[in-house]
Amino acid sequence: MSRFSQWFSKLSIQFLALSLFIFLTFSMGGSSRMDVQSLALLRPISVLFCGFALLTIRQDHFQKSRGILIGFGLIFLLLLIFALPIPQDLAQAMPGQQLIVEIRKSAGVSNAWTSINLVPVNGTNAIASMTIPLAVILFGIQLEKEDMLRLLPLLIGLGAASGLFGFFQVISSSDSPFFLYRLTNEGSAVGLFANRNHAAVLLAMLIPMLAVYASFDVGRPDQSKTRVIRAAALLAVLVPLILITGSRSGFLIAVMGLAGAVLLYKKPRSKKNHRHRSSFISKRFIGMSFGIGVIGLVFVTIFFSRATAIERLFAKSANSDLRQDFWISSLSLVDKYLPLGSGPGSFAEAFRIGEATNLLDATYLNRAHNDWVETAVVLGVPGILLMGAGVLWYVNRVIALSFGIDGNRRSVVVSRLAAVLLAMFAVASFVDYPLRTPTMMTVFVLTIFWFKLASTEARSHLTPNT
């Protein structure tokens, strides 16, 4: 039996199915818009994968991941509550609904039942969007630790593919087939996404992932060195790929990723084996070739992209002041729609109803560009409480991962990686909305599984054998 056959035979059917689903999500889930055609295919596929996952699930799988299931259940329940029909008179008593009720009365539909959501159809879309993370969760709770760790190189590979798409995008025309979405940042390296910020955030997250990947012991010293060289090569390529996205927030997140990589990386502790030592000449040749290749890639990238994306990083944007005004207006909506919020998916309509005169122009704001604020607007007090609970859980887990725990175990290293990735998600969400895309939603769910990996392993050791 070949080495590949031996490796493949160790993979569980759940891991293979989840890997396929992640690949499909990366292929079709790069946009946050509800009218993207690929969602009409991706969401039914996610329902099928949910059904397949239920065929192999056991009761102990639910017990092992109660926290994740409870968190998802609370979010899903909240979305369902916003979709429940209520009488028109009750809707009129809701903050911010008076104008909508008056419009319905003028249209002669005053007796029709409605929902708490300002835009009911968008609330239905929000419920449908949850099928994608649900599929990841139903497979994820069935994976053993080794399968969960194997997802790391898979995400690195898919992220690198997105970066490669971005490279070909900047050296081709705007109608290139490498642009997967019609509404996109034309001329920017958006990769497998529609938005350059989301593409840059994913690339930035690869930096700490590569540091952990390079830290793993794989047996012989030459194998570990090869792993380190691969990670270093991809890391050096990531830097220009992030720059050519032209994303300021992506550049900031990349700096966070580099800091996290420095903290996470540990030299692999492989046993010495003199039979597999590389010669000084070969190592020097590899290093020179690698350096020349990276420098060449940087210059070629800048030349073909005419450095416009890189110039954008340091140019003063006319939209910066407007974005601050948008945030101020968005914060005022939180108070207007308390305590329940305007409803999931209704931010654009809620903003337009009360949009300030000085912000009126030919464009429209589809998102708050601050997911923390937008969540508070659309989900009100329940959303604020859920975010607060998430932050408290994160802080508690980070403290547990920092003290009194063996930091050399793979599960602990990956859990600490997840802590860095979640911090990057949190900061990115202050200036954008990465979690609104199915792809990044999938990465986020996998990160949550990694974050609790060390505690799950500890509990499994305490469980008596029966």
TrEMBL record:
One of its GO terms (molecular function) is ligase activity. It comes from the Bacteria. The keyword Ligase applies. Residues 235-386 form the O-antigen ligase-related domain. Its main location: membrane. One of its GO terms (cellular component) is membrane. It is found in: Membrane. This is O-antigen ligase domain-containing protein.
